[in-house]
């Protein structure tokens, strides 16, 4: 049973540490030496101390909740994002409120209303307007994920350009492919926009004319199947390779190609982006770009939590997380060693 009569000051005195150290240990935040952590945990266990997080939050004018704003929730990518965000929020005793705008016309109003009920908000880039983000940032700490924030709003995003340049150059130079298409819709997605620009940039760097437009589809596996229908049916020449904006699209194109009796990579090269678990498990395994999906939202949560504990409630610092080109069989590279997944 928790001892409601014990206070944080009494626990700090018993452990021989500061009140702030007890708070950091009980919240799972901040830097604490192993020796101090051990002393605090022993005092907490011995006396059954349970901090009153709700009372503390109310006294500080806090809600004990963080907001996460997505355009939607379909697919493994968003599952990974949620898990990354919760990995930081839950140890800090903060609940997570998720708002899916589904590109509704009142998305800005919904996000601003959420800002009145939480201590900070992380927003997927391109989900709401810059004006709404700037207004939201006057209310609570705000971090943009997978995009750049307007003004001084910080962001956490992956390096889209570097790895997409490397992937496209690999196909153009190492595999001597010339007729490549890009599948994905840059409109409304900062990530896809950067990947499309890097795909075209790699062509220009080598003096090769890129396609004028992408095959604009959404980001789910079913959309990849539709793209395969468009690219592989009719009298138009089949491309040599399909560079997809994410792995879900690539897996859909793979299904469509194999269903037509095509061999991958002999008849058609297919690549993705994200390195979701299924990318290494399909046959042939998918050449892709590995990005730290969970770390995107984990870092965003850390920025928000840090700002919520500081005067002024302003998150600071933008981060660009590294990505990595992962070569597998779907582009014609040798398969990983027996038992390996290329992960």
From TrEMBL:
SUPFAM superfamilies: lambda repressor-like DNA-binding domains, Periplasmic binding protein-like I. The keyword Transport does not apply. Keywords: DNA-binding, Transcription, Transcription regulation. One of its GO terms (molecular function) is DNA-binding transcription factor activity. Residues 6-60 form the HTH lacI-type domain. InterPro entries: HTH_LacI, LacI/GalR-like_sensor, Lambda_DNA-bd_dom_sf, Peripla_BP_I. This is Transcriptional regulator, LacI family. It comes from Micromonospora rhizosphaerae.
């Amino acid at each position: 049973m928790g001892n409601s009569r014990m206070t944080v000051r009494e626990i700090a005195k018993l452990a021989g540490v500061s009140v702030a150290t007890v708070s950091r240990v009980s919240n799972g935040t901040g830097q604490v030496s192993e020796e101090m952590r051990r002393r605090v945990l022993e005092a907490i266990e011995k006396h059954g101390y349970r901090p009153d997080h709700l009372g503390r939050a109310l006294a500080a004018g806090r809600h004990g909740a963080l907001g996460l704003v997505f355009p939607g929730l379909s697919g493994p990518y968003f599952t990974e994002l949620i898990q990354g965000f919760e990995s930081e929020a839950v140890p800090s005793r903060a609940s997570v409120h998720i708002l899916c705008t589904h590109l509704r016309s009142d998305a800005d109003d919904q996000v601003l209303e959420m800002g009145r009920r939480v201590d900070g908000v992380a927003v997927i880039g391109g989900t709401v307007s810059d004006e709404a983000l700037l207004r939201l940032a006057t209310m609570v700490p705000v971090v943009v994920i997978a995009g750049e924030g307007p003004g001084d709003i910080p962001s956490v995003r992956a390096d889209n350009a570097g790895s997409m340049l490397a992937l496209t150059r690999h196909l153009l130079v190492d595999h001597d492919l010339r007729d490549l298409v890009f599948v994905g819709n840059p409109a409304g997605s900062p990530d896809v926009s950067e990947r499309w620009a890097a795909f075209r940039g790699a062509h220009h760097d080598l003096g090769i004319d890129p396609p004028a437009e992408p095959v604009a589809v959404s980001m789910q596996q079913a959309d990849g199947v539709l793209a395969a229908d468009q690219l592989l049916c009719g009298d138009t020449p089949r491309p040599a390779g399909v560079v997809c904006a994410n792995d879900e699209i690539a897996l859909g194109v793979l299904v469509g190609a194999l269903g037509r009796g095509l061999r991958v990579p002999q008849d058609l090269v297919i690549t993705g982006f994200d390195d979701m678990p299924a990318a290494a498990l399909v046959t042939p395994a998918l050449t892709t770009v590995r990005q730290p999906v969970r770390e995107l939202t984990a870092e965003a949560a850390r920025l928000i939590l840090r700002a919520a504990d500081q005067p002024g409630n302003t998150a600071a610092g933008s981060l660009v997380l590294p990505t990595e080109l992962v070569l597998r069989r779907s582009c014609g590279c040798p398969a990983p060693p027996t038992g390996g997944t290329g992960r």
